[in-house]
Amino acid sequence: MRSRFLPDIVQLTPTSYATYRQCAREFWNQHVLAVPASDFSASGDSGLLAHAMLRFIHASGNCQDRAHVRDVLAAHGSDEPYMRGVVERHASRCPREADADAHEVDRARFHRGPPMFMATARIDAIWLHDGLLDARDYKTGSKWHDRLIDDPRARVQAWILQRDAIRRGLRLRLRYEYLSPEVDDDPEPWEPDRDDLDAVERELRDAVAHMRTAENWTGVADESLCRRCSFRSICRDSAARGAPSWPVLIGSGEAEDR
Question: 69: pLDDT confidence band, cut at 50, 70 and 90?
Fold first, then answer.
């Protein structure tokens, strides 16, 4: 019965697949049932702002042009040390010359099955240079993997981008740029070969097939992971219990957070 909640074509994104690999119950709550989060989590506003500023900077000029960077940040009220540091750290990794570039690009790839699934991703930046389709993902949080091949998000992104690279006759390179000062080193860029990507396709196919037959979407019950979960207060398997923070109605009809 539970598998009937899944659509005929399962939707996968880098984030949702990483959630599934980490905790099936969290994936069930968030990406299948779309349950509203019961617990507050850290805001992603600063990360979204960093992505937006890098897009604006590249759309109208060069990230190595300090005057241009200062003007863009000032125009958006973001000319402050943290954001200047983000741009500087990116500029040290940005290709100096490229045949073409694109920013915040949406890509999708359909697996006809069985089982059928659609994988989609927003790629922060793509540069074409030196025979490469050089795809970048900007990260403003913590680093969880030292090798991109070990990161479920990167595996989904690489599988989606494989077709673009083949069509253009280019090698695919995926790189994660960690822009927070707390992260010293990026993982090594990954240039997946055909065997890597065939293995990723088998992995995704097997994962979706398992979703179709799953009867129990069990939580991971790991305290360090559960503490970060947006459903920890309502999850039967949570190892970090708490009180839900949903807004509730009081007698006067006003809402208060509890």
Answer: very high
Q: Are 99 and 137 in contact (CB under 8 A)?
A: no
Neighbours of 243 (CB within 10 A): 9
Phi, psi of 150 (to 5 degrees): -85, -5
Distance CA 41, CA 172 (A): 34
CA distance 236 to 110: 34
Question: Do 175 and 188 form a contact (C-beta atoms < 8 A)?
Answer: no
Dump pLDDT digits (tens) for 90-122: 999 998 788 888 999 999 999 997 899 999 999
Residue 132, SS3 per DSSP? strand
SS3 17: helix
Helix axes 45-60, 66-75, angle to 10 degrees: 130
SS3 19: helix
Angle CA 164–17–210, to nearest 5: 110
Q: How many residues does the chain have?
A: 258
- The phi, psi pair for 67, rounded to 5°, reads -65, -40
Give the SS3 label for residue 107: strand
Q: Which amino acid is at 203?
A: E
Alpha carbon 83 to chain centroid, angstroms: 20
Rounded Cα–Cα distance for residues 87 and 54 (Å):
7
